[in-house]
Design a protein that fits this description.
The complex is a heterodimer of chains A (141) and B (112). Chain A contains 3 helices and 5 strands; from the N terminus they run βααββαββ. Chain A has 141 residues and is α+β, with helices and mostly antiparallel strands. Chain A starts with 5 loop residues before the first strand and ends with a strand. Chain B is of the alpha/beta class and 112 residues long. In chain B, the strands form 2 sheets. Chain B has a 5-stranded mixed sheet with strand order 1-2-4-6-7. In chain B, strands 3-5 form a two-stranded parallel ribbon. The chains are: A alpha+beta (141), B alpha/beta (112). The interface between A and B is medium-sized, with 26 and 21 residues.
Chain lengths: 141, 112
C-alpha cells in the first residue's frame, strides 16, 4: 500500500517539443513510488509512453485557431490509484469509435490510444466545461 | 534528429543517436528513411542501440520505411533494440513484421 500523495500539474503550449518533459515526469514518478512491488522499469516506461501519447493526442485535438492554446496535464497519486488527466480545448473526438489496430495489416497511425488502453486500467474522454478531459487510471497494487 | 549512416556489406545502416523517438522527431526519421529509399538505398538496417524510448509515431515511422522499402523489393530491418523498446514491438505485434537482430553481427551472419 502506498500512502503518500503526489500531485503534479503542468501546463504546456501545444508543441511537441514538450513531450520529453511530460514523459520524463511520469518516468521519475514511477521510479520514486514508495512500496511499489511491480516491475518499476516497465511502469516507468509505460507512464512515459502513456503521458506522451495522451499529450500528443491533446495537441492534435487542440484549438488550432488559437496560437496561445495550452494543454494541461495533471498527475495525482493517492493510495494505490494513479490518475492522469489531460485537458484540451479542441472539438474533441469519440474515444469509443477508435478501433483496435489491425495487427495483420499494420498501419502507421492509430496505436497511441491502443497503448493507453492496453497499459492502463481505465480510460475515458469527456467534455467538462470548455475543455475535453482524457482521464486515465492505473491501479498500482 | 541525430542520425549517422554507414554502408556495410551493401546495406545502409542507419544509427539513431537520440535516446528518444516521439512525435517531435519521428517525422524527421520518416523523411530520412524515405530519402534513402528514393536514392535507391532499399536495404536498410536501423540500429537502435542508443534509443531507450519509442512512441507510436516512432513505430509508425519505421513501419512506413519498411513498407516503402518492400515496395521497391528492399528490406528494412532493426538491430540492437533495448528490452523496453522491443516490448513495444511485441505489444503491437510489429516484431512479426520486422526482421529483428540482436546486433549488426547477427544481421550480417550468413552473408558472404
Amino acid at each position: 500500500m502506498c500512502n503518500s500523495i503526489i500531485q503534479v500539474e503542468v501546463i504546456i503550449p501545444t508543441q511537441t517539443k514538450y513531450l520529453d518533459l511530460i514523459g520524463s515526469i511520469g518516468e521519475h514518478i514511477a521510479k520514486e513510488l514508495d512500496d511499489y512491488s511491480g516491475d518499476r522499469e516497465a511502469l516507468a516506461y509505460h507512464l512515459n509512453l502513456v503521458l506522451t501519447e495522451a499529450t500528443v493526442n491533446a495537441i492534435k485535438h487542440a484549438n488550432h485557431k488559437n496560437p496561445k492554446d495550452t494543454v494541461k496535464i495533471t498527475i495525482h497519486i493517492q493510495e494505490n490509484e494513479l490518475n492522469i488527466k489531460v485537458y484540451d480545448h479542441g472539438q474533441g473526438f469519440d474515444l469509443e469509435s477508435v478501433p483496435l489496430p489491425d495487427f495483420e495489416h499494420p498501419k502507421e497511425g492509430g496505436m497511441g490510444i491502443f497503448f493507453i488502453r492496453t497499459l492502463m486500467d481505465s480510460v475515458t474522454y469527456t467534455r467538462q466545461g470548455d475543455c475535453n478531459v482524457l482521464e486515465i487510471i492505473k491501479y498500482l497494487s | 534528429m541525430n542520425l549517422k549512416q554507414e554502408k556495410i556489406n551493401g546495406c545502409t545502416v542507419l544509427f539513431i543517436k537520440d535516446e528518444r523517438i516521439d512525435a517531435h522527431n519521428s517525422g524527421e526519421l520518416k523523411e530520412a528513411i524515405l530519402r534513402l529509399i528514393e536514392q535507391g538505398e532499399v536495404n536498410i538496417i536501423v540500429q537502435l542501440e542508443q534509443v531507450r524510448f519509442i512512441d507510436s509515431s516512432g513505430l509508425g515511422a519505421l513501419l512506413s520505411g519498411y513498407k516503402n522499402a518492400a515496395a521497391k523489393s528492399g528490406k528494412l530491418a532493426i538491430a540492437n533494440m533495448q528490452q523496453q523498446v522491443l516490448s513495444m514491438f511485441e505489444l503491437t505485434r510489429l516484431n512479426r513484421v520486422f526482421e529483428i537482430y540482436a546486433d549488426l553481427n547477427e544481421a550480417f551472419e550468413g552473408e558472404t
